[in-house]
Description:
The structure is a single chain. This protein has 235 residues and is α/β, with parallel strands linked by helices. The protein is 39% helix and 22% strand. Helix 5 links the parallel strand 2 and strand 3. The termini are far apart. The site of S-adenosylmethionine (SAM) has 17 residues, from helix 4.
Amino acid sequence: xxxxxxxxxxxxxxxxxxxxxxxxxxxxxxxxxxxxxxxxxxxxxxxxxxxxxxxxxxxxxxxxxxxxxxxxxxxxxxxxxxxxxxxxxxxxxxxxxxxxxxxxxxxxxxxxxxxxxxxxxxxxxxxxxxxxxxxxxxxxxxxxxxxxxxxxxxxxxxxxxxxxxxxxxxxxxxxxxxxxxxxxxxxxxxxxxxxxxxxxxxxxxxxxxxxxxxxxxxxxxxxxxxxxxxxxxxx
Length: 235
Ligand SMILES: C[S@@+](CC[C@H](N)C(=O)[O-])C[C@H]1O[C@@H](n2cnc3c(N)ncnc32)[C@H](O)[C@@H]1O
């Protein structure tokens, strides 16, 4: 299956009610990401989530942002748009490819996504970053979130589930701070943050003894959280 087909398959049984359920009971990483991004709220701050899927993080962000949600999957945009209406929330919606967005230059104060960039190789990531930078205002900020493969419990969960052919998402590249992609896109890395320690061990739920073993080891080794977030600034 191509990456696009995997994402289509991932939400094929989702409904507007499931989006609203996720909104009412978000993932730990979504709450933590929202807390981080909400700190950037100013006057008329324009924000876009590129690769939003069901758009739960955007739904949770402060309603004072001027929000846009973009995804390649028309069903994702249809479901999140209907959920926005039901929850009485305002946003704009775009079905498009993030490598070639139908958006004019320098429109947004913030570009963000989670769980998108790790599925692309370095050349593709650089292309994506240049496109994100293009739609960002000068001095604007990007938050790029992806799994922390440098935290052993997550890395192991990924490798074992891949071996067992039980990994339901596209393949992931092991990435750290995307130095080359950032330097080649007129951007500056401000911070590399690690979030979502609380959800780290859940990735081992499929093998409880291994989970218990790592919960024990964590007392001594204090593994890093599940999510890496890069805060990147446009020059
Ligand atoms: C992991 S999901 C995002 C999940 C979301 N961050 C959340 O918290 O629920 C990745 C999304 O990126 C979208 N995507 C992948 N490649 C894309 C592209 N080239 N252009 C736009 N969206 C893309 C997929 O359709 C999918 O909905």
